[in-house]
Every structure is written in C-alpha cells, then in structure tokens.
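[recover] target loaded
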C-alpha cells in the first residue's frame, strides 16, 4: 500500500484568491487610516475657525483695526476653503472605502467558494481512500481464507 496524498488541482486559484483578499484588507485599512487623518485635520480646522470667531468677537469691542480685520477675514476664508476641501476629500474617500469593502466581500465570497470545493474534494478523496483500503483488506482476507482452505484440503 502506497501512501498517497490529496492534491487540490485549484490550489493556485485558492492561493491567488487569498492574496487578493489580503490585498483588499490592506487597502481598506490604509483608506480607513487616511480617513481618520482627514477627520483629525478637519477637526483641527473647525477648532481654528472657532478660535478665530472667538477672537473676532473679543476684538470687536473698542477701537477697530481695519488691517487686522482684513487679515482675519482672509485667514477665515482660507480656513473655510480648507474645511470644504477636506469635506470633499472625505466624501470621495467614503465612496472609495465603500467600493473597496464591497470588493473585499466579493473576494472573501469567492475564496470561500474555492475553499468549500477543496473541502468537498478532500472528503471525497478520503472516502475513496477508505473504500480502497477496505477493498484491499477484504481481498487480502479472502486470499488468506482461500490459502487456508487450500491447505486444509491438501492435508486431507
């Protein structure tokens, strides 16, 4: 009896699908990390805008400095522009993350389908191995039985 081992003919496909799934997991993680950084940036910009408004309210009492007000207005506009830009980047990134997550779900589904196929084929192979071994044992037992009956007949 030779020891054979199970060989899955689609092992390369399974490995490829596993690598693809891992790459997509990495992409999702990277994009989520980028999203977190953008949100932190946006929080910083919102905080800067709130500080600017507080400073404007405080400085509007008493003597007004036109140059200072103009500079603060320009600064406020640049902060608002930056906030709008960050919000647009976040919206685009949200869409991108959703698409990559869907691709990840699809890749996981495809990998799982090949794994299930592998498990079924391996079970069929194991069943066939057991049947072959049982058949070989039965044949060996029959030969031994035939030899014993031949020996019994020859001694009579």
């Amino acid at each position: 009896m030779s020891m054979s081992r199970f060989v899955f003919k689609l092992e390369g496909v399974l490995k490829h699908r596993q690598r693809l799934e891992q790459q997509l997991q990495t992409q999702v993680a990277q994009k989520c990390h980028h999203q977190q950084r953008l949100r932190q940036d946006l929080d910083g910009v919102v905080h800067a805008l709130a500080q600017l408004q507080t400073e404007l309210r405080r400085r509007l009492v008493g003597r007004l400095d036109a140059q200072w007000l103009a500079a603060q207005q320009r600064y406020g506009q640049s902060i608002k522009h930056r906030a709008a830009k960050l919000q647009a980047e976040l919206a685009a990134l949200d869409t991108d993350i959703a698409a990559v997550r869907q691709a990840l779900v699809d890749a996981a589904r495809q990998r799982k389908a090949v794994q299930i196929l592998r498990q079924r084929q391996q079970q069929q192979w194991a069943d066939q191995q057991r049947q072959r071994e049982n058949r070989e044992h039965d044949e060996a037992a029959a030969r031994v039985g035939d030899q014993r009956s031949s020996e019994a007949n020859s001694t009579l």
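[recover] notes: The chain has a mean pLDDT of 92.
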